[in-house]
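Hi R.,

Here's the chain you asked about this morning:
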Amino acid sequence: MQEVTDVAAQQADLIHSIDTVWVAICAAFIFLMEGGFALLEAGFVRAKNAMSIIAKVIVDICFGGLAYYIVGFGIAYGVSNGWFAFGFGISEGDLGLGLTVSNKLFWFLQLGFALAAISIVSGAVAERMKIWSYALFVIIFCAVIYPVISNWVWNPHGWLFLKGFNDFAGSAAVHATGGFAALAAAIVVGPRIGKYSKESGVLVTTPIPGHNLPLAAVGAFILWFGWFGFNPGSTLGAVGKWDLIAHVAANTFLASAAGGVSTMIYTYFRYGQIDITMVINGVLAGLVAITAGCNLVNPLSAILTGLIAGILVDLAVVWIDRKGIDDPVGAIAVHGCNGLFGTLAVGLFATEKGLFTGGGSQFFLTQALGVVVISLFSFAITFAIMTLFKKTIGLRVSREEELSGIDAGSFGVESYSTFE
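And here is the predicted structure, written out as tokens:
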């Protein structure tokens, strides 16, 4: 009898060890995505503001990471009333998720999700927002806004979780949350100087190109790489889940590749030449869109999801620009628009219960309810906070600093030395 007990204990220890290694590697992949955000956004802004983007991503990690540890994780995964949970630090005991890894490692994985969500906002307010105002918003976002939404979606007592809402790795909880927060922030902070003007009552857009597109492309490749921790890592273990991991990884790639293809073809026929900056965002749009349903759709549906996302991102960028909303990196279109679409796409294409696969309308309606509530909540709370900041501590750098560059004005550095 003792030998049987010993063998069972050894097997359990082996399962915990293998799952721990898997989740730790995936969490590291997700953390590396912050480097991708930094390079992508820095490349899409002007040289005089490149380091300000790096600074904002550092703020995301340091301020946001501490806020998520002290308050956010407890709100997300503490004992919930369905909408909210009070807690501090890392919750002890069983979280109700069937974890085979420690709560501390699960916290670190989830930290990567929180940081990805807030990093979406940094690009939308690039080149004009004060660093300390941004830091304060990061603390609020990672301590409260994102954790409340992740409580709804992933806490076993969350109201959306109990309704059967499926957001496997965060098209809604991460990307729609960050994307609609970015929309609210961009509206309140206002456009960059010189971006828009009016001629005879008509809004005229002046393009402000990024200073280093190869840098942006490298950032996109790092994000692409990190997504294979983001989605497969959401299995929260490896033992007994090898087929699910493979399915999720394949769908993740297929949707991203399809997003790049459709954007390349669409921009070629629409503009007469391939818009490579839009292709970069098309790949990311495919990744965002498949993140909710990579566990439930088949590979053909993943490709279709990516193809649609790659076109939607260009349509959204154009529409947002026509509304006079300045988003230097296309964060709202990539994450907000396609986070919304990707969540709905699960309800359309899920193999067993999708609207287009014979499953009826109930699951689709659940997906629609969840992503709409999440998007509206994130937008409304962010809009209110940013408006309060604008009227009190201020949001924008001075006109002189914006014109000369935030790097020199706020940090006393230049991103590229002239070697003089």
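One quick note: The radius of gyration is 21 Å.

Cheers,
M.
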